[in-house]
Design brief:
Two copies of one chain form a homodimer.
Chain A: H1 8-22, H2 43-54, H3 66-69, E1 84-85, E2 89-90, H4 116-125, H5 134-142, H6 145-155, H7 162-173, H8 182-187, H9 196-207, E3 224-226, H10 243-246, E4 254-256, H11 278-290, H12 296-306
Antiparallel strand pairs in A: 1-2, 3-4
Chain lengths: 335, 335
C-alpha cells in the first residue's frame, strides 16, 4: 500500500537514481537515494501549468495563487505556521512544500488526494483557502483568449475543463524537483561534499532511527506515521490526520511523513507549524518519536546534516499572465 | 517643476530614444518617444533589490511583498480595484504599475514620494499595507546571514540600513522597463508594426487631445492633472490627490497622469479602479476630460491603439530567497 500512486515520472527518476547509486560502492547501501532533475516531456503543458500556478485569478479575491502558500522563492512553502486564506482566514494546517511533492505517496498531510492533479483542485474550491469554485475558475479561464488558445494547443480540444486545469498544474509541479544537494553529491561518491560534522549527523540520523521514517528519495513522503509515538504530541491544532480519511481510530494522529529535502527552507515544522527551528524539530522528534533526548552536540550534528539536503531550487522565469478580457468577471475581494 | 526628479537612468534612456527617433523622418515629430531596455550598471544591487521586492518577510504578516500589489506577472499591478493590505484591509487607492515607473515625475498617485527609493519605504511601514516598521524590517534582514553578506557586498559596509534596503529595491525597479511595444517599433520606423485601425486610433488619440496629458516616453507620468475637467468625476473614493501634499485647494483631485504603457495589462483603471475595461476608461476620459463623446468606432480605434503599447515584460528568474535563521523573528499574521 505504501508504494501505490507514486507517479511514473518520479518512479523513473528514482529508478535512475538507484542505478546511479548502484555504481558507487561506498554509498551503495544507503537508505536514501539521490534525486535527479525532472525530464520535461510536455513543455507546453508545463508552461501552461506554470501560468496557472502563479495566477491569483483562480481565487475568489483575485489575490491568492498556488504560489501564495507554496512560494517557489521560499522552498515551495509560505514559512508561516498555517497559511492565510480568503479574507485572511487562518488555515488549519501548515502548508507542505510543493518541491519534490511528485515523489510523495499521496498529497496533503492526511493523504486525502491520491496525486498532484487531485490535490490541485482542492485549495481552489476550499472556502478557507482560495474560496473559488471550479466552475468560476473555468469560466474565468474561458474568458481569456490566450488561455483558451493555450489549452487548445496543449489538450487538443476546445473543452477547457477543471480536469485540464489541474492536469496542467500537476505537470508543472512534477518539474519542481531539487537535485544536486550536497548530500546527493555525497551519495553519488563525492566524499568531500559533506563536512565531518554533517557526516556525523547523517550517521546519527541513521543510528538513532530517524531514517526509519525519513527514507527513500525524498527522505519521507512515503508513509504515514503517528505523531507522538513514545510521548504524546501536545498541540492546539485540531487536525486528526489519517483517521479523517480512513475512519479508523487507529489512524488518529497519523500523518504523512514530510520530506526532509530543502528542510532548511521549509520552516516552521510539523503539521501545526509549532517548531520554528530545525534544532527544536530535531529535539521534539527525538523525544516523541524515538524516546531519545539528543545532546546539544548530537542535535547540532543532525541539523548540520539536514542543511545539506537543500538542492538546486527551480530556475523559473516568472510567467507573464494572459490579461483578462472585457468579458472576464472582476474579483470583489471585499464583498 | 514638472521635469524635476526624473531619474538619471530614465533620462538617459529618454535621450537615447530621442536621438534614435530623430533619425527617423516619418515619426520624428511624434509627441511620444520609444523607450529602451534599462542598462544594468550594478547587477549585484539589482539582484539584491529583486530579492527584497519578492520578500514577504518585509511585511508584518510575512505574506505581503512588493510583488503582491505590483505583480510582475500582471503588468506590475494587482488588477484589483484597490489592493488588499495586512489583515485583508481595503486599500485606499488603485495600485499603480511599477513598470516604467522610473520615468514618472514622482511616485504615488499624489506624487508624495519624489522617487522610487522614497516610495519603497512607504508600503512597508504603512499600517494598512505591509504594516511593518522600518526598524523591524531591518532587524529581520540583519538576522539572515545571506542578506547581511549581500548588503555588505553591494554597499561596502556592515550597516544594513533602511536607506540601503530602499536603494536596492529602487535599483531593481529601475530595470523594469518594457521596450519593443508594437507602437515603439512603429515610432522607430517599422510602418507595418501598426494595423490601420490602430493607427487611426493613434491619430484620434492625438487629434482629440488625449496626448495633451499622455505624452513623453511613458505616455503620462510626467504631470499632475485634474480628474474631471469638463465634467465632475463621480466616485466614492476619498482620495483628494495632490492637494493632500501641497495643501492648496487648487490641487484638489489633481492626480499624477498614469502611464499608458502596458495599459492592456493594468486594469482596472483610474485612481479608484472604477473602470474595468479600456473601452469604459476611454469613454470616461473623453467625456470628463475632453468634453467629447467618442463614437463606438472611435472608442474601438483608440482601444486598439492602446493595446499596441504592451512592451516586452521583464524576463525575470524568480529569486531564491535567503532562508531565515534561528534568530529571525517569526511572523504572527493572526495576532
Amino acid at each position: 500500500m505504501l508504494t501505490k500512486s507514486i507517479p511514473l515520472t518520479f518512479a523513473v527518476v528514482a529508478c535512475a537514481a538507484l542505478m546511479a547509486a548502484g555504481s558507487v560502492m561506498a554509498q551503495g547501501q544507503e537508505p536514501i537515494r539521490p534525486i535527479q532533475a525532472a525530464k520535461v516531456t510536455a513543455p507546453a503543458k508545463v508552461e501552461l501549468g506554470k501560468k496557472l500556478f502563479f495566477d491569483p485569478r483562480l481565487s475568489k479575491s483575485g489575490s491568492i495563487s498556488c504560489n501564495s502558500c507554496h512560494n517557489l522563492s521560499m522552498g515551495g512553502s509560505d514559512n508561516l505556521k498555517t497559511s492565510i486564506g480568503d479574507k485572511w482566514q487562518k488555515g488549519p494546517i501548515n502548508s507542505p512544500t510543493v518541491l519534490n511533492s511528485s515523489g510523495n505517496i499521496a498529497q496533503f498531510w492526511d493523504g486525502r488526494a491520491k496525486d498532484l492533479k487531485e490535490q490541485a483542485g482542492g485549495p481552489i474550491a476550499n472556502p478557507g483557502e482560495m474560496a473559488f469554485t471550479h466552475e468560476l475558475a473555468v469560466d474565468m479561464l474561458r474568458s481569456i483568449p490566450q488561455y483558451v488558445s493555450e489549452f487548445k494547443k496543449v489538450f487538443g480540444n476546445d473543452k477547457l475543463t477543471i480536469d485540464e486545469v489541474t492536469a496542467a498544474i500537476a505537470a508543472f509541479e512534477e518539474t519542481l524537483v531539487t537535485p544536486n544537494s550536497r548530500f546527493d553529491k555525497w551519495l553519488k561518491g563525492d566524499h568531500k561534499a559533506l563536512k565531518s560534522q554533517e557526516l556525523a549527523g547523517y550517521k546519527l540520523f541513521k543510528a538513532s532511527g530517524c531514517v526509519g521514517c525519513h527514507n527513500g528519495p525524498n527522505l519521507g513522503g512515503n508513509s504515514y506515521q503517528k505523531m507522538g509515538v513514545v510521548e504524546a504530541f501536545k498541540t492546539t491544532n485540531t487536525a486528526e490526520g489519517r483517521s479523517a480519511i480512513t475512519g479508523k481510530d487507529a489512524d488518529r494522529f497519523n500523518f504523512k511523513v514530510p520530506t526532509l529535502r530543502n528542510v532548511e527552507l521549509t520552516y516552521p515544522y510539523f503539521h501545526d507549524g509549532s517548531a520554528n527551528t530545525l534544532g527544536e524539530a530535531v529535539d521534539t522528534m527525538g523525544r516523541l518519536q524515538l524516546g531519545r533526548k539528543f545532546t546539544d552536540t548530537e542535535n547540532t550534528e543532525i541539523v548540520a546534516f539536514l542543511k545539506t539536503l537543500t538542492g538546486d531550487q527551480p530556475k523559473l522565469t516568472l510567467p507573464a499572465l494572459p490579461p483578462s478580457s472585457d468579458k472576464t468577471k472582476r474579483p470583489h475581494p471585499f464583498e
